[in-house]
Design brief:
- The structure is a single chain.
- This protein is of the alpha/beta class.
- It has 3 domains: 3-11 and 191-278, 4-hydroxy-3-methylbut-2-enyl diphosphate reductase, catalytic domain (Cobalt-precorrin-4 Transmethylase, domain 1, 3-Layer(aba) Sandwich); 14-96, Rossmann fold, CATH 3.40.50.11270; 98-184, 3-Layer(aba) Sandwich (Cobalt-precorrin-4 Transmethylase, domain 1).
- It is 41% helix and 19% strand.
- The protein has 9 helices and 12 strands.
- The protein has helices at 14-29, 44-52, 78-86, 97-111, 125-133, 165-178, 191-205, 218-230, 264-278, and strands at 3-6, 34-37, 55-58, 68-71, 90-93, 115-119, 138-140, 154-159, 181-184, 208-212, 234-237, 253-258.
- α2 links the parallel β2 and β3.
- α7 (191-205) packs parallel to α8.
- It starts with a strand and ends in a 5-residue tail after the last helix.
- Bound molecules: FE3-S4 cluster.
- FE3-S4 cluster binds at residues 13-16, 73, 96, 98-99, 161, 189, 191-192, 260.
Length: 283
């Protein structure tokens, strides 16, 4: 049977594992209703299993009156957190510490009189949270968006955790032409790039690659693209049931990787399912 190798960096990152742990712990100990504000992660299987443990999802803090409300890894604006507390909810803050660092950096820069520039995707919950900590900040996705923009003399830059260094460099380079002082707090988290690098390396060697993760998860879809460019026999799946024995015929190395919202036990379940299929068990 082929060798099955899981990429050296794959699956749930530190922030997601931590958030899952916090929610599971709360579910074990909680008396009253327990909700997450929005789905905890982009992973339908995990959200469904949390639901079985009694963890519901609300979209508005007002719906969690008298309950325990978990804030997701993306973080929220101070106004949302306030609304949750005012509604009488007990708040569990599962904001990833790296996201928190970006939020606090934006707040500090703004207090110190810098015009804050956030490098990131407008409308993304994490960026909205950062914006809430530095009202009036400018959000730019790339350097081109600064064309024609008027910025202050002193500019403070923070970055959405999933952005690339190349993008940050290009924005900072452009800002150097526009402002007198540019202060940069690098709030990029390397988890995403590390997963992409490990997946690319594995896909070059593998005959077949299995990418696990939600179809609606942007980072998983991107991982699948990176892999299929290097290994055409790449398959993006959400659950082990989607695996087909035919995919592995004649393969000597099967690579497995997963997006940041895939917990490690799901990766192990898929790796064992591949092994069983290749051994002809259950056919
Ligand atoms: Fe946190 Fe980085 Fe994950 S910011 S949630 S550890 S991708």
């Amino acid at each position: 049977r082929p060798r099955i190798v899981v990429a050296s960096e794959a699956g749930a990152c530190y922030g997601v594992e931590r958030a899952l742990e916090l929610v599971r712990e709360a579910a074990r100990g909680s008396e009253g209703p327990l909700y997450t504000l929005g789905p905890l992660i982009h992973n339908p299987q995990v959200v469904a299993s949390l639901e079985e443990d009694g963890v519901g999802v609300v979209e508005d803090p007002g719906q969690a009156a008298g309950a325990t409300l978990v804030l997701r890894t993306h973080g929220v604006t101070p106004a949302t957190e306030r609304a949750a507390r005012e509604a009488g909810a007990a708040v569990i803050d599962a904001t990833c510490p790296y996201v928190k660092k970006a939020h606090l950096a934006a707040e500090r820069l703004s207090e110190e009189g810098y015009q804050v520039v956030i490098v990131g995707e407008k409308g993304h919950p994490e960026v909205e949270g950062t914006l809430g900590h530095a009202p009036g900040a400018l959000v730019v996705a790339d350097a081109a968006e600064l064309d024609g923009a008027r910025v202050g003399r002193r500019v403070g830059v923070v970055v959405q955790t999933t952005q690339t260094r190349a993008c940050l460099r290009a924005v900072v380079d452009r800002l150097l032409d526009l402002a007198e002082e540019v202060r940069v707090v690098n709030t990029i988290c390397d988890a995403t790039t590390e997963r992409q690098r490990a997946a690319a390396k594995l896909a070059l060697e593998a005959d077949v690659v299995i990418v696990i993760g939600g179809r609606i998860s942007a980072n998983t879809t991107h991982l699948a693209e990176i892999c299929s460019e290097r290994c055409p026999a790449t398959h993006h799946i959400e659950t082990p049931e989607e695996l087909e024995a035919g995919w592995f015929e004649g393969a000597s190395l099967v690579g497995v990787t997963a997006g940041a919202s895939t917990p490690h036990e799901q990766i192990e379940a898929v790796a064992s399912a591949i092994a069983r299929l290749c051994d002809g068990v259950g056919e």
